Amino acid sequence: MESLEPILTSHPFFRDLDQKYVHLVTGCASNVRFDAGKFVFREGEEAQHFYLIRQGKVAIEIFTPHRGHITIETLDEGNILGWSWLIPPYLWHFDARALETTRAIALDGKCLRKKCEEDHDLGYEFLKRFAHIMEQRLTSTRIQLLDVYDVHA
Amino acid sequence: MHEGTVETLDSAASPMIPQPFVIRNIRRETEDTFTMELEPETSGVLCSFAPGQFNMVYVYGVGEIPISISGDPGNTHSVVHTTRAVGTVTKVMDKLKKGDFVGIRGPYGVPWPLQEAVGKDVVIVAGGIGLAPLRPALYSILKEREKYGKVVLLYGTRTPSDILFREELERWRSRFDLDVFVSVDRAVSGWKGNVGVVTNLISKSPFDPHNSLSMICGPEVMIRFTVMELIRRGVDPSQLFISMERNMKCGVGLCGHCQFGHYFVCEDGPVFRYTDIKDMLVKWEI
C-alpha cells in the first residue's frame, strides 16, 4: 500500500516539520472518505481524530431546536478539521457534516497525544501549528460577530 | 495618486447642477437592494465613466447622495446605479417608478487602476454592496481579457439571500477564464456553498501573489482584514487598491465633508492605493 508520508510532507500544515516527525505522524494516519450528507463527527462524541481535507467540503454545524442545523463555517481542500482531540475532555463541540463527497487523511488523536507526550519537541510543533489555526478561526469568528454587512454595522 | 481620468456626463454644464435623468428600468437585487438604469432626458448626452467612479444622485425634494456606478462602461447611453435602501434618500429612491426623474451630477472620482493591472493577475475582493462599484471593473477586464493574467473574484456577503447580481455571478462562474468564489457569513441548511468570512477565501485562491493587483471594496473592517490576508499571502502592499466611503457632498473637492486626512475622498478617491492611506486607516480621529 502507498505510504501517506509524501502527502503529509507536502501539506501546508506540516511545512518545515522535521522529516523524522512526519514519518512518526504517518504511523497515526489513515485515508477516509465521507459521502455527501454523512457526519464526520457529532457534538458530544469523543474526539478521536483530526482531518486534513484533501477533496470535498465539510460544514461545521450546530443544531438548535428552533432554527435547525446552523452552519458556522465550511472547510474544504487543504483545511484542517478538528482540534478537540488535543484539548481535554477530548469531545467534539460541534457537528461536522460532508456537504459533498469528501476525502481526507484522518490522524488518530490518541496515537498523536502519546507521541507528543513522549517527545515534547513534537508536541510543541503541534501546539504551534494548531495555535495558528485557532488564531485564524478566532479572527474569522470575530469578524462574523461584527456582522459587517448589517445596515447598522 | 494613480492613473485616472474624469469625464463628465455633460462637460459644458456646471459641476454643481444636476442633469435630469429618467428611470428606464428598476431591478430588485435583494430585499433591500435595487438597481436603476437611468437615461439622460436630453438626447445625445453620453454617459461615459471609468470603473470605480460615482455620481451624485439627486432625488428631487429629498436630497442628494453619492452612488457608485455599477453598469457596463461600454454602454454610454445610460447609467446604472445599484444601492441599498437604508437612508432618507435611498428609501425614497426605492419607491420611485419607471418614468420618474432624478438628477445626476458626475461622474466623479479616481477609478480602479485597470491600466496598472495589465499583465498581472487581478484579485477582486468584494463585500456586500461593495460588489456594485467593482462590477464595471470586471466588465472592462472581461472585455479585454487577454490583457490580464488570472482573474479572481472573491465575494462575501451576509446570507445567501443577500447575494447581488446572482444570475451574473452564475454566468461568470461558468467561464473558464474567471474564478469566482462566494462565501456567506451565515447560512442554514440548504446552502451548499462556502460559509465564513470572505478573507478565508484568499489563502486558497488561484493567483500568483508576486504578480498580482487587488481591488477591494466593502465595509471598512472587511477591507482592513482583507488587506492583512492579502499581504500575508505575499501580495505587495503597493498593489492593493481600496475604495473608501466617506460623507461626500459636493463631489468636486470643495466642501470638505469627505476629508480623510489630507485627502478629499470625492476627488482624490474613492479608489486609493493602500500604501497611500494605510496609516490613516487605523487612526480613530480620521
Concise synopsis of the structure shown:
The complex is a heterodimer of chains A (153) and B (286). Chain A has helices at residues 5-10, 19-26, 109-118, 120-146; strands spanning 29-34, 39-41, 49-55, 57-64, 68-76, 80-81, 95-98, 102-108.
Please describe what this structure looks like.
Chain A has 153 residues and is α+β, with helices and mostly antiparallel strands. Chain A has four helices and eight strands. The longest helix of chain A is centred in the C-terminal third of the chain and has 27 residues, at 120-146. Chain B starts with 18 loop residues before the first strand and ends in a 5-residue tail after the last helix. Chain B has 286 residues and is of the alpha/beta class. In chain B, helix 3 links the parallel strand 8 (151-157) and strand 9 (179-184). Chain B has a seven-stranded mixed sheet with strand order 11-9-8-7-12-13-16, with helices on both faces. A six-stranded antiparallel sheet of chain B has the order 4-3-6-1-2-5. In chain B, strands 14-15 form a two-stranded antiparallel ribbon. Classes of the chains: A alpha+beta (153), B alpha/beta (286). The A-B interface holds A 57, 59, 67-74, 76-78, 99-100, 139-140, 143-144, 146-151, 153 and B 32, 84, 86, 127-128, 156-158, 162, 183, 185-189, 191-197, 199-200, 203-204, 218-219, 221-222, 225. Strand 5 (68-76) of chain A pairs antiparallel with strand 10 of chain B, so a sheet runs across the interface.
